[in-house]
Amino acid sequence: MRAVMKDGSHAVTRLLRTVRLGLPVSLLLSLGLPSVVAAEDFYQGKTVNLIIGYPVGGGYDTYSRLIAAHLGRHLAGHPGVVPLNMPGAVTIRAANYLYNEAPRDGTVIGMIDQAIYLNQILGTSQLRADAARFNWIGRIVSNGAVLYGWHLAPVKKIEDTFARALIVASGGVSSRLNWLVLNSVLGTKLKLISGYAGTGEERIAMERGEIEAMSQPWPIIKTELAQWLDDKKINLLVQTGADKNPGLEAVPRMIDLARNDDDAALLGLFSTPSTIGRSVVAPPGLPPERVAELRRAFLETVRDPLLLRDIERAKLDLEPLPGEELQAAVASAGKFSPELIARAQRIAETRN
């Protein structure tokens, strides 16, 4: 609070000084000098809705609620931040809402599936959004998910799936695409099952024997399933991210299974969502000063000792990325060749 007031008072001083010099206030506003004061005037007394594209429970919901609990203190004007779950079509409902319907003034932000850009270039018909045009506010953590199998399943390591079938939950966009590409490129025998509302239901289904494997971010697995890991009730099969999770050097990545350069490039494309991970976005078309304010507040939030305390208590990971860098990373996802994208699209066509 003291920091915001200090910055605000400096902005007011600059404003008065400029007025005394005879410069119009409109010019000062165009230079962005009193941005803290302007942001405080805008957010004072308002509520910010944080749209979560998944149901309650799971990594998206957990990280979204952590940000919502602390972000308001770092926005000028200290608005309340309310998390609102909007599940549907694997966050496409939420993505379409944020892109096409939400107010473009900074009062609505959200967290959508990390595969939003991959889903877009693969031609998902329901998606009515351009991922590169979202205003990316910042990443909380990258997401190197891990496919893990139940201890009673005959598959004990990912290589076993070349000869044996494995029944895998595939509710998320990323996970379903990952398993499809493994089947198509490498010849794994993953039988995909969808329809579960979230990871909580998938875990119950695995205990019941309805499915044999599922995937989640490693920070969630090592925290929420610590007892299962200790009791050896699950086997870690493969990592989906571009980089290995710390401590899982012995567990292969998808790209490690490639048999040639072309397959490695394709598997690399399907690994790109891990860079987005759990990130906060805002609709396109926001005023630049509002985007800057949200990004500033986000960076302060992920450095806030109170949030860091909650992260530590929950035994979660934190790997923040500033909004500007995240925006550039999303834009650079278009570096893949048209031939590679066409091959990926052919694989994705089998998902429906």
Which descriptors would you attach to this protein?
single chain; 352 residues; alpha/beta; three-stranded parallel β-sheet; three-stranded antiparallel β-sheet; 16 helices; 45% helix; 16% strand; globular; disordered N terminus
Can you tell me about this structure?
This protein has a three-stranded parallel β-sheet with strand order 2-1-3, with helices on both faces. A three-stranded antiparallel β-sheet has the order 10-4-11. A three-stranded antiparallel β-sheet has the order 8-5-9. Helix 4 links the parallel strand 1 and strand 2 (80-85). The protein is of the alpha/beta class and 352 residues long. The protein has helices spanning 2-20, 25-31, 35-43, 59-71, 92-100, 116-121, 173-186, 199-208, 218-224, 226-230, 261-271, 273-276, 288-302, 305-314, 323-331, 338-348; strands at 47-52, 80-85, 108-111, 135-141, 145-150, 166-169, 190-193, 213-217, 234-239, 278-282, 321-322. The chain contains 16 helices and eleven strands.
